[in-house]
Amino acid sequence: MTSLSRLSKLLALFLRHRPEEAGLQIDTYGFVPLDEMLKAIQERYPEVVEGDIRKLIEGASQQRFEISDRGIRAVYGHSFFVEMDGEPIQAPEVLYMGCLRKEVERFRTDGIKPVDRYYVHLSMSRETAAERSHQPGDACVIEVAAAQAQAAGHQFYQRGEVVLTLEIPAQFVGEAHDVALPPGARRPAEESDRRGGSRGDRRPSGGGDRRSSGGGGERRPPSGNTARPPSGNTARPAASTEAAAPAFGRRPRKATGRR
User: Fold this and answer.
1) What is the pLDDT of residues 65-85, one digit of tens each?
2) pTM for this one?
3) How far apart are CA 250 and CA 20, in angstroms?
4) Which of 34, 111, 215, 255 could anchor a disulfide with 170, C-beta 3.0 to 4.6 Å?
């Protein structure tokens, strides 16, 4: 029997990153017919039935996927363009995003832009942002002056526990707060001091700087590329997205100055 964890990972792969790998055609808003999704899953896990997919979605503590009469979709986390349906929310004064301490000054200079996701992913509370931040290293939570950004023309869309926007200009990046560590845990700098102090010639493990994508901490999918829409983050009518449809399944280009 296929575990719900494996099923969730496969749904994320097909609906967030590589639908073309399963021959799926995702519509403007990220939906694919449920029967087509089931057939694609059964290519790998023949024992899976529709009830297993519904059980996964209905029993999840976080709303990562949804099923409607239009089909099934991932509600956030896409590495390719999907249009935002529904109305933008009235942004609160502050939204939050998990990141690393070393990224904060860059955000205050260059703003926050997505890299391995098409949208910046934010959270409604500092606690949620901290819980969603699975970054290695010296993690923190940074504030975003969302109400001011919205007044300047940037739109925010809520998808489950996640709030999506195209980018956050530098003037709306606020204070950073350390993430509370479990009892007995040490931050990287403290661990270095305990072992005899930081050394300038010490190489970081893992092969380099892994930047944050806006709250999720997920790695860049390994395929494709796609262009981003013009900046400004204003809502766009569905009709204007038809030309963007061929970009589905491709990775967004790497935005300079942002993880």
Assistant:
1) 999 999 999 999 999 999 999
2) 0.70
3) 9
4) 111
DSSP characters over 130-142: HHH---SSSEEEE
Nearest residue to 16 (alpha-carbon basis) of 65, 69, 89, 62: 65
Sequence ranges of the chain with CATH classification 1.10.10.970: 4-74
List pLDDT tens digits, range 135-178: 666 889 999 999 999 999 999 999 988 999 999 999 999 999 98
> Is pLDDT at 191 greater than 80 in this prediction?
no
- The arrangement of secondary structure in 95-194, i.e. its CATH architecture, is Alpha-Beta Barrel (3.20)
Backbone Cα Rg of the chain = 19
Encoded tokens for 204? 């970081």
Tell me which H or E stretch contains 56: helix 50-58
User: What is 4-74's CATH number, 1.10.10.970, 1.10.630.10, 1.20.1050.10, 3.30.420.40?
Assistant: 1.10.10.970
Look-up: residue for tokens 């363009």?
Answer: 81
Mean of the per-residue pLDDT values for the chain? 78
Tokens of 192: 């270095």
Tell me how far apart the alpha carbons of residues 179 and 168 are, in angstroms, rounded to a whole number.
Answer: 21
Would you give the distance in Å from CA 31 to the centre of its chain?
Answer: 17
Beta strand 120-123 with 162-165: parallel, antiparallel or unpaired?
antiparallel
